[in-house]
Amino acid sequence: MNFTKYYSILALVLVTLASSLIFWLAFYYNLPGKIGFQATTLETIFANYDGPNYLIISKCGYSSQCIRHRFSLPSPLEYYPAHFPFYPLLIKYYNLFTAGPKAMLLATLSGSLFLSLSAYAFFSLFLSPPNSFWLSFLLIFFPARLFVLHQIGAPETWLLAAILSSIYFFKTKKYFLSALMLALAQAFKSPAILLFIVYLFFFIKDLFSGKDIKKYFWYLLVPLTI
Questions:
Q1: Which of 12, 33, 49, 132 could form a disulfide with 116 if both were Cys (CB 3.0 to 4.6 A apart)?
Q2: Cβ-contact 49, 87 below 8 angstroms
Q3: Per-residue H/E/C for 159-179
Q4: pLDDT 10s per residue in the chain (226 long)?
Q5: What is the rounded distance in angstroms from the CA atom of residue 6 to the CA atom of residue 117?
Q6: What is the pTM of this model?
Q7: Angle of CA points 119, 192, 223, to nearest 5°
Q8: Residues 139 and 119: beta-carbon distance below 8 Å
Q9: Phi-psi category of 190—alpha, beta or left, where left has phi over 0 and alpha has psi -120 to 50?
Q10: How distant is the alpha carbon of residue 75 from its chain centre?
Q11: Which residue from 217, 163, 172, 171 is spatially nearest to 192, judged by alpha carbons?
C-alpha cells in the first residue's frame, strides 16, 4: 500500500468517526432545541427507524414469549423475523462493553467504517486514488438518507459495505471472499439475494460458454445463509 492510499484510508476513517460523533453530540446536548427546533436527546436516535426492534432481538432472539412478556412495542410478533440476525448479534457483542442502545450505535459505527473502506476499494477498481477518496468521502454524507442511516440503529451500512466488498472481490477474481461477503450481507438484510441472482446470470453465461464454473459453487453460501 502506497502512502497516498494509506493517508486516504486514514482520512476516511477519521471523517467517518468525526461525522458520527459530532452528530450524536448534537443530540446529546440538545443543540437542535437550543436553536429553536424541537427538543431532542439521544433517545431520539435510539428510537429511530427499526432500532428498537433490533434491540429487542438482541435480547430475546426470535422468542415470541420473551418479546411478548418483556416488551410492549406495537409491532406484531410475526414482524420480528423480518429483521435478520447478524445486526442484533453485533449489538449483543457490543453490549458486553456498554448499555444496549449505545451498543447499537457502536454496531452501526462499525458498519459505517466498513462501508467507507469498502467503497474506497470498490471505487479504486475504476478510478484513480484521489477520485476514489473524494467519491468515498461524499458517500459518508450523501445521499442524506444514507447519512442518517450512518447514525441510527440500522444495518444498511453493513449491507452496502458487504455488497461492495463482494463485487470488489468478484472483480479481482477472489471468488471465495466474494461469496463470503455476500453471505455476510445476506445475514444482515434480505435484498442481498438480488446480487446472488446477478452472479447466477454470470454462472449461466460461463456455463454455456464452456468456461470453468467451479468458482461459482462458493455462492451457495448465500441461499444457505437464508
A1: 12
A2: no
A3: HHHHHHHHHHHHHCCCHHHHH
A4: 565 788 999 999 999 999 999 999 988 887 776 776 676 777 888 887 788 899 999 999 999 889 888 887 777 888 888 899 999 999 999 999 988 899 999 999 999 999 999 999 999 999 998 999 999 999 999 999 999 999 999 999 999 999 999 999 999 999 999 999 999 999 999 999 999 999 999 999 999 998 989 999 999 999 999 8
A5: 11
A6: 0.92
A7: 135
A8: yes
A9: alpha
A10: 23
A11: 163
Q: Which three cell numbers stand for residue 145?
A: 438518507
What residue type is assigned to position 9 of the chain?
A: I
Q: Which three cell numbers stand for residue 71?
A: 416488551
Asked if 27 and 130 count as a contact pair (C-beta separation under 8 A), the reply is no
Give the three cell numbers for residue 177: 471472499
- Taken as a whole, the chain contains a residue count of 226
Cα–Cα distance for residue pair 113/20, rounded to 1 Å:
10
What does the block give as the cell for 179? 461469496
> Among 146, 147, 87, 123, which Cα is nearest to 9's?
123
Cα separation of 5 and 75, whole Å?
Answer: 46
Give the alpha-carbon dihedral of 84, 87, 89, 95, to 10 degrees.
Answer: -150
Q: At what angle do helices 86-94 and 156-171 cross, to 10 degrees?
A: 110
